[in-house]
Amino acid sequence: MLALRTATRHTRRTRYVGQLRLFSNKHNYDAVVLDAYSDNGRLALSQSSHISNATRTSILEQLQHSNFKNAGDVRVLYNAGGVKQVAVVNLGELKQLTHGDNVAGKRLEAARTAAATGVKALISQGVQKIGIDVTTSAHGAAEGATLALHSFDRLKNPKSRKPLIDVGPFLETVENVDPFLTWETGQIYGASQNLARSLMETPANLMTPKIFAEEIAYLLAGLEKVEVIVRDEEWAKRQGMNALIGVAKGSEEPLRFLEIQYKGGKEGDAPLGLVGKGVTFDAGGISLKPSNNMALMKGDMGGAATVAGALYGICKLGLPLNVTAVTPLCENLPSGRATKPGDVIKAMNGKSIEVLDTDAEGRLILADALYYLSSQHKPHSIIDLATLTGAMDVALGNVFAGVFTNSDKLWSQLDNAGQFMSDPFWRMPLHDGYLKEMRDSSVADLNNLGVGRSGGACSAAMFLKQFVSGIESPIQNISGDASLDDPVPQTEESDNDIAWAHIDIAGVMDSKHSNNYHVKGMSGRPTRSLVELARNLADN
C-alpha cells in the first residue's frame, strides 16, 4: 500500500509570553518557519501576539544584516526565542498580497511557497517537528509543507530514506482566505497530489493495471459514500470496448477498467464525470518509441493518477456532490499479439478506427471510456485528463496544462480553480478543421494519427470529441473541410451539449527540478485544481 505522509493534527491553543525573549511554543516544536515581508520599505514579521517584542526585534536585526531583501529569500537562525532553529522566509512586498486581482489566490500561494521553502531549508538540519507559520493562510501553509515533504524513497535501503518529519500549525491565521480552508483542508489537498505523485512514480513492474486498481480500491475502501468497481477484460468485451482491448493485446498484464462512484450529493443528481488515461507503461506498441527517456513512460498513467488523487481528496473532504470517475488501465507493449499499424478496430460507440500509429494509444482507450461514462451515467460535465501528446509539451512546456473544451462555463470554472491553486490551465482551440486528416481513412470512419506533431494536441482533442455521447458537432461536412473563417465551436456551445473538457497534461507530467513545493520527479498535477473545482461545484 502506498504510504501517504500526513501531519499530526494539533490543537491551536497558545499562551502569551509578554516581553520575554521567547516564542509561544505550546507544541514544543524543535524548529519553526516564519513569514516575513516588506511593508512600505520596512521589514516586518507576520503579526502575532505570540511572538514577544524582544524576540521579534532580535530576529529582524539579524535579518537586516544578512541581505534579506527579495521574495523567496530564506535564513535559518539558531536558538531564537527559545526555539532551536527558525527558518524565516521573505514573502516580498505586503501590498502585492493585499491589492489587485486574485488576492485570495496570492495569499494562498505566498503561504504555500513560504512553508515549502522553510521546510526544505530545515530538512537537512536534523529536525523532527516543525511548526509552520499560518498567519498568511493556514490552508496554503499546510499544502506547501505537505507537498515539500513528499519523497518517493520507499524502494531504497532504509538507511538511505529521508526521515519522517512532523509538521503542524504555528501562531494563528490573522485573516483567513476562506472559512472552509483550514490547516486540515490544506493537508488533504497536499496529500491528494502526493498520492498522484506516488502512483506515477512507482515503477511499472510494481504498478500494473491490476495493482493500480487494487491500490485505489484499498485506499478508498474505508471512506464514506464511495464505491469502487474493478472490471476485467471479459466485461470490456461485453461492452464492445475494442479500442481499449486493442491497446492491451500486446501485454501479458491483463487490463482493468476502474470505476469510482462518490455519492456525496443528492440522490438522483447528475454527477461530475472524470476520466483518466491509465497506460501504466507505454512502449509505443509496434510503433516502438525511442529508448531514450522511455523510462518516464511509467508516468503515462498520470491522468488516472490525478483522477484517483482528486477522488481521494473529494472523499476525505466529504464534499456534497456526486462524482463518477473511470480509468481504463492497460500497458502498451509490442508482441506477436499486439495491434499492428493498419489494423481496424470498432470502438464502443460503433465507429471504426484505422490504427495508423500504435503509439497514439491514449486516445483509443479514452474513446471507449468517454463513451461509456457519457452514455451510461449521463454526467452534467465530463473532464478527461491524459498525458496524451508530445505536441502539448512543445506548445506549453511545463507551466500550463492545455484545456480543450466545448463549454465556456466549464472553462471558466477550470480557469478559476487553476488560478486559485497556482496550478494553471491554458485554453486551446477546439475546431473541426483539426479533424480533417483523421476523417481521411479509406477503410474506416476515422484514423488515429491526424497530422502528427503539427497541431497534434488539437487533432487528438478533436478525435476524443467524437466519442462523447451528447455532443453535436457544429460542422457536419463528411469530407472534413473547414475554413479557419468558420466560427470556432468552443464559442458556440449548444444548450443540448454535455459540457466536456479534455486536459492534456503531457507537459506538466513531471518536474525537472525541485523548487519550493515542486519536487523533482512526477508532479501529480493538476490534482489540487480538480479538488478545488469540485469544491466550487459543490458550493454552487
From TrEMBL:
<dbReference type="GO" id="GO:0006508">
    <property type="term" value="P:proteolysis"/>
</dbReference>
<keyword id="KW-0031">Aminopeptidase</keyword>
<dbReference type="InterPro" id="IPR043472">
    <property type="entry name" value="Macro_dom-like"/>
</dbReference>
<protein>
    <recommendedName>
        <fullName>Cytosol aminopeptidase domain-containing protein</fullName>
    </recommendedName>
</protein>
<dbReference type="GO" id="GO:0070006">
    <property type="term" value="F:metalloaminopeptidase activity"/>
</dbReference>
<dbReference type="GO" id="GO:0005737">
    <property type="term" value="C:cytoplasm"/>
</dbReference>
<dbReference type="Pfam" id="PF00883">
    <property type="entry name" value="Peptidase_M17"/>
</dbReference>
<feature type="domain" description="Peptidase M17 leucyl aminopeptidase N-terminal">
    <location>
        <begin position="49"/>
        <end position="159"/>
    </location>
</feature>
<dbReference type="GO" id="GO:0030145">
    <property type="term" value="F:manganese ion binding"/>
</dbReference>
<keyword id="KW-0378">Hydrolase</keyword>
<dbReference type="InterPro" id="IPR023042">
    <property type="entry name" value="Peptidase_M17_leu_NH2_pept"/>
</dbReference>
<keyword id="KW-0645">Protease</keyword>
<dbReference type="InterPro" id="IPR008283">
    <property type="entry name" value="Peptidase_M17_N"/>
</dbReference>
<dbReference type="InterPro" id="IPR011356">
    <property type="entry name" value="Leucine_aapep/pepB"/>
</dbReference>
<feature type="domain" description="Cytosol aminopeptidase">
    <location>
        <begin position="194"/>
        <end position="531"/>
    </location>
</feature>
<dbReference type="InterPro" id="IPR000819">
    <property type="entry name" value="Peptidase_M17_C"/>
</dbReference>
<dbReference type="Pfam" id="PF02789">
    <property type="entry name" value="Peptidase_M17_N"/>
</dbReference>
<comment type="similarity">
    <text>Belongs to the peptidase M17 family.</text>
</comment>
